């Protein structure tokens, strides 16, 4: 029996049974991966538990496909988040931190690659900017050369599509990047993402973001302050990298 925290919202029996059946084949590999990330069995078990809880919430509320790659992504992000919090407590960064990104019951960051298949590229990037990076609709509009009303309407349509279990792929689904997992992260690739964000090129933002993720680098936050954009990245070991770039 897979242990899902009983303090969380009560599971619907049928949904929970389906979740357990789909996850069970991946448990040995997932447990091994969690132990590898945490570097000891006890912390690995804690990471496994956190991963299963997050995966269950996504499956229950959004009917997310439970592939091995997706479960590994949740585990990696959970470990990075934990490592980042420990790093920040031990060694605070200079300057003011940006406001926390908006979050919901589902960790959209973990599920982004899966959820994006239901959306157009534009909808996916706006969801990334607003629901993951914490931009306002007005800020996202300014960065992408749109209007606040158009951004709000696109987000409304995106969230409506995501609320429908098993929604078909969105109209932009054919414009996906085909970069394979494990691509080596380079300074050039990070610069590509930064320049895409500076220019507001939606297709390039989408493609470079996925390439960074598939190479093991997570874009934690992006924010604007005093005529500059700031980017926080974390590597697979949880090390925080902050880069700033002047606005055009």
Fill in the keyword field for this structure.
three-stranded antiparallel β-sheet; 248 residues; mainly alpha; 10 helices
Q: How would you describe this protein?
A:
- It is a single chain.
- The chain has helices spanning 13-23, 27-38, 41-62, 68-90, 108-116, 121-132, 137-144, 148-162, 187-199, 202-214, and strands at 218-225, 228-234, 240-246.
- The chain is globular.
- The longest helix has 23 residues, at 68-90.
- It has 248 residues and is mainly α.
- A 3-stranded antiparallel beta sheet has the order 1-2-3.
- Helices cover 56% and strands 9% of the residues.
- The N and C termini lie far apart (55 Å).
- 32% of the residues are buried.
How would you summarize this macromolecular structure in one to three sentences?
The protein is mainly alpha-helical and 248 residues long.
Helical stretch count? 10
Roughly how many Å is the radius of gyration?
Answer: 18 Å
- Going across the major beta sheet, what is the strand order? 1-2-3
Termini separation? 55 Å
One letter per element, helices H and strands E, the order comes to: HHHHHHHHHHEEE
Largest sheet: 3 strands, antiparallel
Write the layout of secondary structure elements.
Elements: H1 13-23, H2 27-38, H3 41-62, H4 68-90, H5 108-116, H6 121-132, H7 137-144, H8 148-162, H9 187-199, H10 202-214, E1 218-225, E2 228-234, E3 240-246
Antiparallel strand pairs: 1-2, 2-3
Helix pairs in contact: 2-3, 2-4, 3-4, 4-5, 5-6, 6-8, 6-10, 7-8, 9-10
């Amino acid at each position: 029996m897979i242990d899902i925290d009983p303090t969380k919202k009560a599971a619907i029996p049928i949904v929970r049974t389906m979740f357990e059946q789909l996850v069970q084949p991946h448990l040995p590999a997932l447990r091994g991966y969690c132990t590898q990330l945490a570097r000891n069995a006890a912390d690995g078990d804690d990471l496994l538990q956190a991963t299963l809880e997050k995966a269950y919430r996504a499956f229950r509320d959004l009917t997310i496909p439970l592939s091995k790659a997706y479960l590994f992504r949740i585990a990696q992000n959970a470990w990075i988040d934990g490592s980042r919090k420990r790093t920040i407590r031990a060694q605070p960064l200079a300057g003011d931190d940006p406001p926390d990104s908006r979050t919901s019951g589902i960790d959209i960051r973990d599920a982004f690659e899966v959820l994006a298949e239901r959306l157009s590229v534009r909808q996916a990037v706006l969801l990334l900017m607003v629901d993951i990076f914490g931009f306002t609709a007005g800020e996202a509009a300014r960065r992408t050369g749109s209007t606040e009303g158009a951004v709000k309407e696109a987000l409304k349509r995106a969230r409506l599509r995501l609320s429908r279990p098993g929604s078909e792929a969105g109209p932009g689904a054919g414009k996906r990047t085909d970069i394979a997992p494990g691509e080596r992260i380079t300074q050039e690739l990070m610069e590509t993402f930064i320049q895409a964000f500076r220019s507001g090129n939606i297709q390039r933002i989408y493609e470079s973001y996925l390439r960074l993720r598939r190479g093991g680098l997570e874009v934690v936050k992006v924010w604007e302050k005093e005529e500059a954009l700031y980017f926080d990245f974390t590597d697979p070991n949880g090390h925080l990298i902050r880069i700033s770039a002047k606005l055009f």
